[in-house]
Specification:
The protein is 39% helix and 15% strand. The protein has 288 residues and is α+β, with helices and mostly antiparallel strands. It folds into 2 domains: 226 residues, no CATH class; 42 residues. The strands form 2 sheets. An 8-stranded mixed β-sheet has the order 7-6-8-4-1-5-9-10. Strands 2-3 form a two-stranded antiparallel sheet. It is globular.
Length: 288
């Protein structure tokens, strides 16, 4: 079984060097890809993104703050605490008993975030780094499933998987190139964007801000740099509108979804927040 205590004592730079040394064959392309990746991440950067549905984004655009699972405790009119799995993960991460003070996001180089959590991707401005921020090199729910859940020292596992803003380039490099090696090809920025955040496999961001005297602690509209949408969501919205025009009435849930999206579009225009549909993960031209 993997020695997690040993892993926790290594820097991400050391891990990258060890990983490169462990790869078979000629390292020319591997070293070139590492250099190119480092250039891209240094010059153009990566962002923390948070996905939200139309209802949550509408509240944010109307002046409310973003809310985590502990603050959104009412579903269907009845009190509903976070799931036992969420509470268990928070304990493993060391967030309990103050889980309500932590906000979750993901690291993205491009794309539209983790769409499982909402069809709008909120790209946070760089100043959120002023918060207390840490990262996990994967989805924290992985801690509850084999093989990680079977490790004898859960704390060592968590410490081994944690990374920092400064170490993210090495973390991203291992994640991306570990998914495409062995290789004799140069990677592209589109591939880097796709492999950094793919479906629900991502580098998780943990943002902490203790409660302020006014009772607030989360981020508001001023911390959002732009809003991104996937073309599939826009196409589905347009399809439902066309159904109405053609006399085929969508379901009540679909009509409500369209109505909320329409209100969000109007509010985005009114607050002049940049919004765009992301049709590709990266650029088609060479990076430099």
């Amino acid at each position: 079984m993997r020695n997690w205590q040993d892993e926790a004592g290594k820097t991400w730079s050391d891990r990258l060097s060890e990983w490169v040394a462990s790869q078979p064959g000629d390292h020319d392309f591997l070293e070139a890809n590492i250099t190119t990746l480092r250039y891209w991440l240094t010059e153009h950067g990566h962002r923390i993104v948070v996905n939200a549905g139309a209802f949550a984004l509408e509240r944010l655009l109307l002046g409310d703050n973003y809310k985590n699972r502990y603050e959104l405790s009412r579903i269907g009119g009845s009190a509903e605490p976070p799931s036992p799995r969420r509470i268990q993960v928070d304990k493993l991460l060391g967030f309990q008993p103050d889980g309500a003070e932590w906000y979750f996001g993901a690291i993205a180089v491009g794309g539209t975030g983790v769409r499982f959590y909402g069809d709008y991707c909120l790209v946070l401005a760089p100043e959120v780094k002023d918060w207390s921020v840490q990262f996990l090199d994967r989805n924290s729910y992985d801690l509850l499933d084999p093989p990680l859940v079977d490790a004898p020292d859960a704390l060592a596992v968590v410490n081994a998987l944690k990374t920092t803003w400064e170490s993210l380039p090495e973390t991203i490099t291992i994640k991306v190139l570990g998914s495409v090696t062995p290789t004799v090809r140069l990677v592209t920025v589109g591939l880097v964007a796709e492999m950094t955040l793919r479906d629900e496999d991502f580098i998780e961001a943990h943002l902490h801000r203790p409660t302020r005297p006014d009772g607030g602690r989360s981020f508001g509209l001023t911390s959002v740099e732009e809003v991104r949408q996937a073309p599939e969501e826009v196409a589905q919205h347009q399809h439902l509108l066309e159904q109405q025009v053609n006399g085929r009435i969508p379901s009540a849930a679909e009509l409500e979804w369209c109505s909320r999206r329409a209100r969000v579009e109007r509010l985005l225009d009114s607050v002049c927040l940049p919004s765009r549909v992301v049709t590709t993960n990266g650029r088609g031209a060479r990076w430099r």
